[in-house]
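Most newcomers find our protein records easier to grasp once they have seen one. A record pairs a protein's sequence with a compact description of its fold. An example says more than a description, so a record of this kind follows:
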Amino acid sequence: MSNISGFVKRIRDIMRNDAGINGDAQRIEQIAWMLFLKVYDSKENDWEFNEDDYQSIIPEPCRWRNWAHEENGKGMTGDALLNFVNNTVFPVLKGNDIKDAIGNVLIAGVQVDPTTPPKKQIVKSTFENANNYMKDGVLLRQIINVIDDLDLGDYEESHAFGEIYESILRELQSAGSAGEFYTPRPVTDFMAQMIQPKIGERCADFACGTGGFLTSWLKELDKVKKTTDDVELYNQSIYGREKKQFPYMLCVTNMLLHDIDIPKIEHGNSLLYNVLDYTDKDKFEVILMNPPYGGSEKADVKNHFPDDLASSETADLFMSVIMYRLKEQGRAAVILPDGFLFGTDNAKVAIKKKLFSEFNVHTIIRMPHSVFSPYTSITTNILFFEKTKPTEETWFYRLDMPEGYKHFSKTKPMKIEHFAPAINWWNNREEIIVDDFPKAKSYNIEEIKALNYNIDLCGYPHEEEEILPPQDLIKEYREKRASLDADIDRVLAEIMALLGENNES
């Protein structure tokens, strides 16, 4: 591809002319399924080279190389292309047979069963709820050609495209509700760095979205892999589960781009399993997550949790899942909103009591406001804990807004270097007091219990109201009262006039 940096812009410009594309969310979803097929086709080239008996699960007419790729400028376009995509490619990949007028099967739909290798299963699961929104076959051909130009067999270009793919995922934040799938990469990178991945460990994210935490984990793990055995363990080191189809598709593609040939990414809701049924094989050495929060689940979902932990808040339920699925000696880093820290309802207190009594909650990082701006104003925190021993003390550290920033935005986003003060403090912990307010401080478990597990500590000082001298304060309040009394008298007079009453009541 001659100008890989212009990839997204070229596609956007073409799609703007198609009447079927309505907004960024559809545009990105349209790109997503085509990218998946292109990336998967590139992976199949590798598998065919390395496996003598490799056979694609995709029927030959529907493989990217056989319908999307142009030879000598010749390929399907216009209505013929549109008809083939809508009435052959999509039905087949969703598992439906293509038949002739008398019912003979012309192309068998993709079918999977428990014996189907995971790297083949992902084709059908990826397309279960995918859509082709484009209505202009000529424009569709132009998009396909841009994507097909990618040489994913070339290491440098493949790596470069990985960066482009990250930019596509960032754009999800401006694509309406799709923004919930993306956690800023500096945040996931910081968490993965602090967790310090080791070869042989598996990292899980039970609401993995587009796979941001998993890619950050792989990036850190890549630094320590050396042998061919390490590479094999690297390939088996991630597990994700995602409820929504679109981010699931993006995540699978993301893992393939990161050289995970067998991405263990499942499509489904992690809350639909009884937490008491999990065994050791269902548990992981590391969990990195930003659970969905702010939502609520159906009443029957709560039946999968012990009564005292059966919160109606999604983030609370995921915290319980995390606690039940973290291995002995395992480590976790989880993003949670302020509401979890200061919440004192029965379920939240029960969850936090279990967390502190069964896990070592060693560090809580209070993140600055607007980390997820402008898409949500919710202030968040990172909880680091281990399944090693009950908590004895917890360090709190407030990460302040960087100098020169009033808030983060699309044009001034958070960067990994903004975590530098926290990283420096992490390895040399000490209490920090700023303006008589704690920025970093350790609290023992007895102090935390005494607060009824309200762990809203070392937070951000609020601007205090100016305290005036007593005489000035009295004068100000008298003026405010007089003004308020006058307003009340005026409104009462208007009401009484409307009622036809006189003022002599």
Summary: The chain has three domains: 4-165, 178-450, 466-505.
